[in-house]
Automatic annotation (TrEMBL):
One of its GO terms (cellular component) is membrane. Residues 127-543 form the Amino acid transporter transmembrane domain. The lineage of its organism: Eukaryota, Viridiplantae, Streptophyta, Embryophyta, Tracheophyta. Its main location: membrane. The keyword Transmembrane helix applies. This is Amino acid transporter transmembrane domain-containing protein. It is found in: Membrane. GO terms for biological process: amino acid transport. Residues 48-104 are annotated as: Disordered.
Length: 549
């Protein structure tokens, strides 16, 4: 017999074993027990839920059942015969080193763990983010080295196509961000309310393991490609610092380009520095350094805009043309246009971090509503900033617009400001490059260093060194800033920013095929696929064509 409601509210409950004690404030944990006898039959659970629903006080519920826990056979066998640790309803959970993880089955758990998370626990997480903090996260995530190539992109597209392309892709980014924002909360029939705290978690939940692996390929390619891009950018910025100082000492007509060496020299120097920096343990957990790096990214972008405005004012007129830089042949013009589109694609999307930002927001109002508001405002601000950087750069230099606004040396003075902006680019790189966070085990050796003994992971040493060597080698092999950015942006744009968000949205909302909504969403995806393919082909032609010519 099931206990009455009064008996149930006084019943002792069993909680999953945890590594640390956590308060279950505001959450009622209901074990699948009745008078000491564990409820083994799923069919009995609706009756339990009905009795609770009939009560006046309806706290958030989580049901811990034998069929809703994941436990290793060895750990399960070792627990046979043990007296279960019980606590009064609403008190803290038990401690222990077990690996069993409880999943909410009935009712609504207000703060459910993310799908597949290794630290799932029944605990109310305090989220304090607002629309303002979300906007700050988005803007600092979007603005990066891609902003430096926007003036070159506008120069290829002209006054007609350049601003129009930026506004168009701002709209595309707004649409795909809305689709992703709706995928944060999932109502799972067995797990209850599930928060997808990361992009890959959402892909795995809605689309399955195969799509998760497919997504992982493009994600890792994007991370690796970003390392190559920042190696290129940082090395050219180091060279630009040398050139700026040379021009300041010797004059603007001095042969500084020959005296400071080629880009490959600085790429190798920077690669050696990265090998050392990459061995710092838990580099990715240095929150202060990440904030500082975001400030550096914003700083050099602002410097680029400011120098462009100053140059236009100094010239006294606006340079450029409606159709952009003329080329010798139509084919060359088409390739340049496609590369320019690829550069813009690289600069805009932030889909990979959107759900992580949304996971910081407080509720009410619903997190998705707050995120959509923050996304619209952030994209509007970013678009104005991008238009300023691209258009003022093109207005300042016209057909002579450099591929990298800070290193093409249309600017000579103030040399210290140019040095500082380029130094910010160099310092940003270590935050992005090192991605061996999946493997923490392996052999460890003790190395004497600075009068003490340091424990060094052999895997970390080998993997990170090889990773840095690979990014540096590719940067030296393909030292084409705009073409590489265009290839990376166009290759990863459609799968990561369009395809997976569209498929997740359709799966979550169970949109019926061939309805107006289904057709419009797939039409949007198909148009973006064509644009991405066009930009990818042109950028690849620029990278490999320049290499073979």
């Amino acid at each position: 017999m099931l206990p009455t409601l009064q008996a149930m509210t006084n019943m002792q409950v069993s909680t999953a074993r945890r590594r640390r004690r956590v308060p279950l404030s505001g959450v009622t944990v209901l074990a699948c027990r009745s008078g000491g006898q564990r409820i083994q039959d799923r069919k009995m659970l609706p009756s339990v839920k009905q009795k609770l629903d009939d009560g006046e006080d309806k706290p958030s519920l989580a049901v811990v059942c034998p069929w809703t826990t994941t436990e290793s056979p060895r750990n399960r066998d070792s627990k046979k015969g043990e007296d279960s640790k019980e606590s009064a309803m609403g008190s803290g959970g038990g401690d222990g080193d077990g690996d069993r993880r409880a999943q909410p089955l009935l009712g609504k758990l207000s703060e459910s763990s993310s799908y597949g998370s290794s630290d799932e626990h029944l605990v109310k997480v305090k989220r304090t983010g607002t629309v303002w903090t979300a906007m700050a996260h988005i803007i600092t995530a979007v603005i990066g080295s891609g902003v430096l190539s926007l003036a070159w992109s506008v120069a290829q597209l002209g006054w007609a196509g350049g601003p129009a392309a930026m506004v168009f892709f701002a709209g595309v980014t707004a649409v795909q961000s809305t689709l992703i924002a709706d995928c944060y909360i999932s109502h799972d029939p067995e797990r209850g309310v599930v928060r997808n705290r990361s992009y890959v978690d959402a892909v795995r939940l809605y689309l399955g393991e195969k799509s998760h692996l497919f997504c992982g390929f493009f994600l890792n390619f994007s991370l690796f490609g970003t390392g190559v891009v920042y190696t290129l950018t940082s090395a050219t910025s180091m060279r630009a610092i040398q050139k700026a100082n040379c021009y300041h000492r010797e004059g603007h007509d001095a042969p500084c380009s020959a005296s400071v060496g080629g880009d490959a020299y600085y790429m190798l120097l920077f690669g050696l520095a990265q090998v050392v920096l990459s061995q710092i343990p838990d580099f990715h957990e240095m929150a202060g350094l990440s904030v500082f790096a975001a400030v550096m990214s914003f700083f050099y972008a602002v410097v680029g805009v400011g120098l462009g405005v100053a140059k236009v004012i100094g010239n006294g007129f606006v340079m450029g043309s409606i159709g952009g830089i003329p080329m010798v042949s139509t084919t060359q013009k088409v390739w340049r246009v496609s590369q320019a589109i690829g550069d813009i694609l690289f600069a805009y999307p932030f889909s990979l971090v959107l759900l992580e930002i949304e996971d910081t927001l407080r509720s009410p109002p619903p997190e998705s509503d707050t995120m959509k508001t923050a996304t619209r405002a952030s994209i509007a601000i970013t678009t104005v900033f991008y238009l300023s950087c691209g258009c003022f750069g093109y207005a300042a230099f016209g057909d002579a617009t450099p591929g990298n606004l800070l290193t093409g040396f249309g600017f000579y003075e103030p040399y210290w400001l140019i040095d500082l902006a380029n130094l910010c680019i160099v310092y940003t790189q270590p935050v992005f490059g090192f991605v061996d966070r999946q493997f923490g085990g392996g052999a460890v050796v003790e190395v004497p260093l600075l009068g003490s003994t340091r424990r060094v992971s052999v895997f970390r040493l080998c993997f990170r060194t090889a990773y840095v060597a690979a990014t540096t080698a590719l940067a030296v092999w393909f030292p084409y800033f705009n073409e590489v950015i265009g290839l990376l942006g166009s290759f990863t744009f459609w799968p990561l920013a369009i395809y997976f968000p569209v498929e997740m949205y359709l799966a979550r909302n169970k949109v019926a095929p061939w309805t107006k909504q289904w057709i419009s969403i797939y039409a949007f995806s198909f148009v973006c696929l064509l644009i991405s393919a066009f930009a990818c082909v042109g950028s690849a032609a620029g990278v490999f064509g320049a290499e073979t010519s």
